[in-house]
Each structure stands twice: as C-alpha cells, then as structure tokens.
Amino acid sequence: MTSHKVVTHLTAALFGTAVMFSTAFSAHAASDNNPYGLIEPGHLRVASLGDAKPYTFTDKSGNFTGFDVEFFKNVAHRIGIDQVSFVGQDFSAILPAVANGQYDAGVAAIGITPAREKTVDFSTGYLAGYLTVLTRSDSGVKNIETLAHKRMGVIQGTLQESYALKHFRQTDLVRFPDNNAAVSALNNGTLDAMFLDYEAAKDYATRFKLVTAADIPSFDAPAGVAIAKDKPAFKAALDKAIKEAMQDGTWKQLYEKWFPGSPMPAQYLPQGQ
Ligand code: SNW
C-alpha cells in the first residue's frame, strides 16, 4: 500500500509539473471561452519595467503606473478585461518571455522594429518620440561629437544599444540590465553618459540634476504592445481599442498627464474634429 501511495504522489507531482510547464511555456490557442488565447481567460499578465518613469514604473506602494500602464489598462477595459497584472522584468527579458507564452503582453515603450517582429507581433503603435543622451554637466559630453572616447551606458536589448553600436562607434558602450543601475553609474562618475528614452531621461534629469546632450528621433519605431505571434483575434481587438482610445481623446488626456509640455505627435489625436 505504501509504495502504491508513493507512486500515486509521484505521478501527481509529475503531472503537476507538466501542467505548470504547459501553462508557462506554450502559446495559448483561442477558444470560445478564451477568444484572445490568454494564459487565463479574463486576465492579462503583462511583462513591464519598474524603472522607466513616466512610461512604466512602480509607485511607493509597489503598484505599476505611468503612461503606458494607464493607457494599456484603458485599452484592456475596452476589450472587456479589467484584471491586468504587471510584472517587472529586465528589458532584455520582456520579448523572449512574451514570445514563449509566459506573459500575454509586453508593455514598456517597446519600439516596433522588423528585427523584433521576427519573434513577436505588435499592436498598432501608440507612442513615438526621441532617444536621449543624458549626461552630467561636468562630463565634457556636450553633443554627439564629444561622445567619442567617453563611457556611455545602454540598457541591453534596447534600440539605444543598437543605435549606439551603429552610429557612436568611437564611444565605449557599457551595458546595464536596467535604467536605475545605469543612472547610478552616471551619478557616481563610472559613466560619462547614458542613452535612454526621452521621457525617462527628462525624469532622471529632474531628479538628479542631469542634462541632455542629444535627442535622436525614433519616430520610425513607435512603441506598441508586444504579444505572441499568431493571435490574430487578440491583435485585432487591441488595435481597435487603441484607435478608439485615440479617437475619443483618452490618449491625449493621458499624454498631457504623464508628459506635460512634450511635443504631441498629431497622428494619435482625434481625427476629423
Ligand atoms: O522608439 C521609441 C518610440 O519612438 C517612443 O519614443 C518610445 O520609446 C521607443 O519605443 C524606444 N524605446 C526603447 C526600445 O524600444 C527602450 C525601451 C525601454 O527602455 N523601456 O528599445
């Protein structure tokens, strides 16, 4: 009897593991009660960042907030989902985790590029802006020319990393997992500059008295919601909801709330009014 019980428990344990794996690592097919093919119907699990203020960040109580977070929750509501859980990741982990089905979506000012579209699909774009070189006023970095032979931080897997590799060939790149780590290195003098998204740079500049040395347009890679490939119903629903949120002025209201004073791309504003 005893040995039989052991076998039963072992089987249950193995079965449990198999279920866990299939939940975490397989793409979820759409079905009648799960039209968007989510990990769990009615619940959106989102990979994000805790330190990309004001796009996505955690507030003092540990809750995710910011432009991307509030915009995505509004879009989720429009497709009938109010349970949205954000989890902070290193930027370089977000797209692989979305691609293999550990999350339903990735939301973190993630620019849509052909290279990324090889592994994930994206919603229609919802944000377009600049990449910014942030520096200390005493660093000697004044512009792109004076970046030569300086140490500049980039976050692994970002467009800033690939742009710098291509265009700032004389600059020594230092890779970091996240914004906070790179900004502390800039503040303590380990780095001369750091390359990140415009609005996050603006926020760190205010917090730590840092300055901007260059803004580089990244309008050809607007941010989108990353989702696993082959989920046409999910993508169509997101796209429709995003366009509605732009047309009824929700996008504009959130943009003005989170990015006050920033230039507003006209393509996301209500049309024909
Ligand atoms: O390409 C831009 C886009 O135009 C907008 O300004 C929002 O940021 C971008 O999507 C670029 N974002 C970086 C990237 O996609 C870094 C993302 C991050 O640090 N969270 O690699």
UniProtKB/TrEMBL annotation:
> Where found, per UniProt?
Cell envelope
What keywords tag this UniProt record?
Signal
On the tree of life, the source organism's domain of life is Bacteria
Q: What PROSITE patterns has UniProt attached to this entry?
A: SBP_BACTERIAL_3
Stored InterPro entries = Iontro_rcpt_C, SBP_3_CS, Solute-binding_3/MltF_N
Q: Provide any one GO MF term from the record.
A: ligand-gated monoatomic ion channel activity
Domain Ionotropic glutamate receptor C-terminal: where?
A: 43-261
Give Gene Ontology CC terms. membrane; outer membrane-bounded periplasmic space
Protein name according to UniProt: Amino acid ABC transporter substrate-binding protein
What taxonomic ancestry is recorded? Bacteria, Pseudomonadati, Pseudomonadota, Gammaproteobacteria, Enterobacterales
Signal peptide: which range, if any?
1-29
Q: Where is the Solute-binding protein family 3/N-terminal domain?
A: 43-262
Family, per entry: Belongs to the bacterial solute-binding protein 3 family.
In which broad location class does this protein mainly occur, judging by the first location in its UniProt entry?
other
On whether Amino-acid biosynthesis is a keyword of this UniProt record, the answer is no
